[in-house]
Specification:
The protein has eleven helices and eight strands. The protein has 215 residues and is an alpha/beta fold. The chain is globular. The protein binds adenosine-5'-triphosphate and magnesium ion (MG).
């Protein structure tokens, strides 16, 4: 699990969108030995790359379950046997979604929408799951649940690229981290080392601590 942290406007979402093929980019992007240059979004999905975008982009006028089934497109297309059983795995991970399977996605709460966005990405059985600020706008308890879920996925063998404002939580779960500042990599290293780096503490962790104290 790799995390990218950095201030607003650093280019974190831009990086993920470029990796997914939503934005053009220069340089090389290699995934699992394959050069992704020139591959469309759908082709990247078929190779096992999935993105939970910052704006979530759910189908608001469709029920929860239909949103999940649409996420299973890759598995269906690859004729993965029992791809529908993935639905049960997602419901196990997020029982709340099972309770609300018939509810329109547009009427879900912020935390539930987040669960649905992650669940939908998992339906494609990705090898690499990219998460853009999964803790955004969520209550601390829900954030803890989301991070526990992310940790479970890592244990299950999914590679994760995590973009977060919540640097403390991100560096706690990740193996390796990058600090992005105005489009450039400022620092990088094992997450544990970054969490102990004076510059990171002062700029990212110290601020988180004082705002937590203020709240
Ligand atoms: N299409 C665009 N046209 C002009 N500027 C853009 C465009 N897309 C992104 N930007 C700018 O590029 C910078 C990086 O944006 P990006 O969304 O990647 O930031 P971020 O690191 O994800 O920030 P945040 O933590 O606020 O989500 C921002 O200053 C943004 O305003
Ligand atoms: Mg962003």
């Amino acid at each position: 699990m790799v995390t990218v942290i950095g201030p607003n406007g650093a280019g974190k979402s831009t990086t993920l969108n470029a990796l997914m093929g939503l934005l053009p980019c220069r340089g090389t992007v290699r995934f699992d030995g394959v050069d992704l240059a020139g591959l469309e979004l759908e082709e990247r999905v078929m190779l096992g790359v999935a993105l939970v975008p910052e704006k979530r982009e759910l189908f608001g006028t469709m029920p929860v379950e239909d949103n999940l089934v649409l996420g299973g497109y890759r598995a269906m297309k690859l004729r993965v046997p029992n791809w529908k059983s993935e639905l049960e795995r997602v419901y196990e991970l997020f029982p709340r979604l099972k309770e609300r399977r018939g509810q329109l996605a547009g009427t879900l709460s912020g935390g539930e929408r987040q669960m649905l966005a992650v669940g939908r990405a998992l339906m494609s059985r990705p090898k690499l799951l990219m998460l853009d600020e999964p803790s955004l706008g969520l209550a601390p308890l829900v954030v803890r649940d989301i991070f526990t879920t992310i940790d479970k996925l890592r244990t299950a063998g999914v590679s994760i690229l995590l973009v977060e404002q919540n640097a403390r939580a991100a560096l706690e779960v990740a193996d390796y981290g990058y600090v992005l500042e105005t489009g450039e990599i400022g620092l990088h290293g094992p997450a544990r080392e970054l969490a102990g780096d004076a510059r990171v503490i002062e700029t990212y962790l110290g601020a988180a601590r004082s705002s937590a104290a203020a709240a």
